Inverse folding.
């Protein structure tokens, strides 16, 4: 589908264009294998000389249609689905990093990603340097090494909902000849398209707003096609030198702007296998069809709830980019003029214990280890998602002990506020 269409049209129709007599709705290709008439046909696909389907671990028509839709929404050239957002972030970096390499990342990121970078990838011989996303360009430059291969950040940090200065990070990354990878889960391409601000690769936990209904775990990687890998061929031999596992094929020469995603599919998905199930991709596609309708409602409700909380005398602080009191307000107006997301954070006077008592008193709003779906929910990161971090690491990640992550759903906002009000009476 033409990229000239508006985002709402792409949400509904991109990725799947049925021909005469084909299903109007994207079907679930619930098959592990695909038939061919000759051995030669299959062989050419195994050598990456022809595109097609032969085994769902590598490619599946349902998955590819949904990846194409997300790619269109982000304005990229190629994309792939993964089994989760964690897999997407891992693949996005591991596709260009190997043992002995290094990357730079903003400190204010999701706790699971922090652990992936600081513990698991370190075991693979890949090190990272965490930097304050509000640091000056001069300070950011000091984090780079001769073996640095990428820079990573989140458009909106989870859970602190702080806005990343994408242009600043892109300038610094490109000055050192490396790509900027952005996790765009919270705003989605409805509210921010990082490629327009200089990012090179975007990741998503599609589990969140894209699915929108807490039905299916998944992830996605989208490549802008803008980073010139061959200009830094010595840094990226995996893309720019022959791959002996494919008879000496060189990805950048064989696939041009599709090199990065082709390598991620042909190597990482082949060997590590974190595929998204076709049925999950089908459910994700249904969610995407209403993404452009749901995101404005999430943002409207969150703004109303944030303003209400900010006026309550039992609330110590509120963090939401739409509030003028937020340190991220100006960056939010720049990168997210139409709204950020439905997630906000706040703390109660009295600290951690009072916050937990308040959460336990909620009725409509549920305590769940999830965020960013149609239903309102809360979480206490210091006790839940980030409990593996030390107090010092929590501080570095911008997470206060009393921080409550509040994912505002699309219910009637008056009912949401009434629940907050009755729970606050218990503290």
């Amino acid at each position: 589908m033409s990229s000239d269409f508006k985002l709402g049209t792409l949400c509904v129709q991109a990725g799947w264009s049925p021909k005469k007599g084909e299903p109007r709705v994207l079907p679930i290709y619930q098959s592990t294998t695909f038939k061919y008439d000759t051995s030669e046909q299959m062989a050419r696909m195994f050598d990456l000389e022809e595109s097609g389907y032969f085994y769902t671990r590598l490619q599946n028509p349902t998955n590819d249609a949904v990846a194409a839709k997300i790619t269109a929404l982000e304005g990229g050239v190629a994309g792939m689905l993964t089994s989760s957002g964690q897999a997407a972030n891992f693949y996005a970096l591991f596709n260009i990093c190997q043992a002995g390499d290094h990357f730079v990342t903003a400190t204010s990121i999701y706790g699971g990603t922090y652990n992936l970078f600081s513990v698991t990838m370190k075991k693979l011989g890949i090190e990272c340097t965490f930097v304050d996303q509000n640091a000056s360009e001069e300070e950011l430059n000091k984090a780079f090494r001769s073996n640095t291969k990428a820079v990573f950040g989140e458009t909106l940090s989870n859970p602190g909902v702080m806005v990343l200065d994408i242009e600043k990070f892109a300038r610094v990354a490109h000055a050192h000849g490396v790509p900027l990878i952005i996790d765009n889960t919270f705003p989605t391409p409805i509210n921010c398209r990082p490629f327009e601000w200089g990012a090179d690769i975007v990741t998503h936990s599609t589990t969140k707003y894209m699915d929108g209904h807490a039905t299916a775990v998944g992830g996605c990687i989208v490549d802008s096609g803008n980073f010139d890998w061959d200009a830094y061929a010595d840094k990226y031999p995996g893309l720019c030198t022959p791959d002996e596992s494919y008879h000496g094929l060189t990805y950048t020469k064989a696939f041009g702007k599709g090199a990065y995603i082709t390598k991620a599919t042909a190597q990482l998905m082949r060997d590590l296998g974190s595929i998204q199930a076709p049925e999950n991709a089908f459910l994700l596609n249904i969610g995407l069809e209403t993404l452009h309708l749901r995101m404005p409602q999430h943002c409207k409700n969150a703004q109303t709830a944030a303003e209400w909380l900010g006026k309550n005398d039992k609330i110590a602080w509120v963090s939401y980019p739409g509030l003028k009191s937020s340190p991220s307000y100006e960056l939010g107006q720049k990168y997210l003029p139409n709204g950020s997301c439905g997630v906000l954070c706040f703390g109660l006077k009295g600290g951690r214990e009072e916050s937990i008592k308040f959460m336990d008193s909620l009725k409509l709003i549920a305590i769940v280890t999830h965020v960013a779906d149609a239903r309102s929910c809360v979480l206490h990161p210091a006790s839940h998602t980030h409990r593996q971090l030390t107090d010092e690491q929590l501080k570095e990640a911008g997470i206060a002990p009393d921080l409550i992550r509040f994912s505002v759903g699309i219910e009637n906002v008056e009912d949401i506020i009434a629940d907050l009000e009755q729970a606050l009476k218990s503290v």
In short: The CA atoms of residues 48 and 88 lie 22 Å apart. The mean pLDDT is 94. The radius of gyration is 22 Å.
